[in-house]
Design brief:
With 314 residues, the chain is mostly helical. Among the domains are: 84 residues; 112 residues, Intergrase catalytic core (hpI Integrase, Chain A, Orthogonal Bundle), CATH 1.10.443.10. The protein is 54% helix and 4% strand. It has 14 helices and three strands. Strands 1-2-3 form a three-stranded antiparallel sheet, with no helix packed on it. Helix 12 packs parallel to helix 14. The longest helix has 32 residues. The termini are far apart.
Length: 314
C-alpha cells in the first residue's frame, strides 16, 4: 500500500518517453533485429553472441545519433579490448552498419577499412590425449551418464551445445542427425560401434540423452559445470574440457589419414582452414614420418646398402 500511495504521487511519463529516438543508435539496433539479415542470415549461436554485444553497446551509446558515429570512435573502442573480444565486437557492429547503409540510415559504413587485430595462435583448447581418455573411462564405466557424455563428444566430434540436444529421435538406420547451432549445417554421422554400445547400455528415457537429475535438458554452461565435476572425479587436470574431445576426435581422424574433406564431413566446419588448425600437430607428425621414410629410401637407393628403415607407425 505504501508503494501504491507513492506511485499515486508521481507524474505519469509522457507517451513515447522510453521509446528509441528515430535516427539513434538504439533505433538502428532495434530495426536490425527485425531484419532478414539478422533473423535469417545468421546462425542461432551467432545471433545470440551479436545481440549480447549490441545490447551492451546500446546501453552505453544508444541515445547518440547514428549518423555521427565516427570511424575513429570505433577504432578507439576496439583498442580497449582484447584481440578476441575486438574481433567479435567488430563483426557485430559491422553487420549493424552494413544493414544501416543498405536501409539508407547511414551514408557510409564507418567500419569499412578497419581490420580486426591479429590473434596469436595458442592452439586453443587442450586436445585430450589417449591416456586422458583412458583415465576418464576407467573412472566412469559404461552405463553411466558421465561415460555417455564422453562417448557422444568423442565419437560425433560435435560441440557441447549440439551434444546436449541429441536424443533418440535424431537416430535412424545407424545414423545420427545433427543440426549445428553455430553453423546451421545439417550433418548425418554414422554411429560408431563404441558409441552404439554405450547408448544401448545407458538408460535415458528422455528426448535428450543427457539430462539433469530432475530430468531436464542441460544448458550449455550447466553441462560444462557437470562435465567438470566428472573430470575432477577422474583426477583429470583443469585443461581437460569438453571441447577438447572434439579436437581429439578430429585428431584421431587425421592420424589415420582422413582427408580434410572427410574430416569436415564429420566436424561440420565451414572452412578447411579451421580443420587444419585443429589437426595441424597430428598431420605434421604423420607427414614428417613419411618424409623421413622417403629420405631414407632414397639414401639406400643411392648407396646400394640398406641402412635400417625408420618405422612409419605411431
Amino acid at each position: 500500500m505504501a508503494a501504491y500511495q507513492a506511485a499515486l504521487g508521481t507524474s505519469p511519463l509522457a507517451i513515447g518517453t522510453q521509446r528509441s529516438r528515430p535516427g539513434s543508435v538504439s533505433a538502428a539496433i532495434a530495426a536490425y533485429y527485425l531484419s532478414t539479415d539478422f533473423r535469417d542470415g545468421l546462425a542461432q549461436g551467432t545471433r545470440y553472441m551479436r545481440r549480447t554485444i549490441l545490447e551492451r553497446f546500446r546501453q552505453q551509446h544508444g541515445e547518440k545519433a547514428l549518423g555521427t558515429l565516427p570511424q575513429q570512435f570505433i577504432a578507439i573502442m576496439m583498442g580497449k579490448m582484447t584481440p578476441h573480444v575486438a574481433r567479435n565486437w567488430l563483426k557485430a557492429v559491422r553487420g549493424l552498419c552494413q544493414f544501416c547503409v543498405a536501409q539508407g540510415m547511414l551514408k557510409a559504413d564507418p567500419t569499412q577499412g578497419l581490420k580486426a587485430p591479429r590473434i596469436r595462435d595458442t592452439g586453443g583448447h587442450h586436445t585430450w590425449t589417449e591416456s586422458e581418455v583412458k583415465q576418464y573411462e576407467t573412472a566412469h564405466p559404461i552405463g553411466s551418464k558421465a561415460r555417455l557424455a564422453l562417448a557422444l563428444g568423442l565419437y560425433t566430434a560435435q560441440r557441447r551445445g549440439d551434444v546436449v540436444r541429441m536424443g533418440c529421435q535424431h537416430i535412424s538406420e545407424g545414423v545420427i542427425k545433427v543440426r549445428q547451432q553455430k553453423t546451421g549445417a545439417t550433418l548425418r554421422i554414422p554411429i560408431h560401434p563404441v558409441l552404439k554400445a554405450v547408448l544401448e547400455a545407458t538408460p535415458t528415457g528422455h528426448l535428450a540423452f543427457l539430462t539433469t537429475r530432475t530430468g531436464k535438458s542441460y544448458g550449455a554452461n550447466d553441462f560444462s559445470e557437470q562435465f567438470r565435476i566428472w573430470c575432477d572425479a577422474a583426477g583429470l587436470p583443469q585443461h581437460c574440457v569438453f571441447h577438447g574431445l572434439r579436437k581429439a576426435a578430429l585428431t584421431r581422424l587425421a592420424d589415420i589419414g582422413c582427408t580434410v574433406h572427410e574430416i569436415r564431413a564429420i566436424g561440420g566446419h565451414t572452412s578447411l582452414r579451421e580443420i587444419e588448425r585443429y589437426t595441424r600437430a597430428a598431420e605434421q607428425e604423420r607427414l614428417a614420418r613419411q618424409a623421413m621414410a622417403r629420405l631414407e629410401t632414397e639414401a639406400e637407393r643411392a648407396s646400394g646398402k640398406p641402412s635400417g628403415k625408420l618405422s612409419t607407425g605411431r
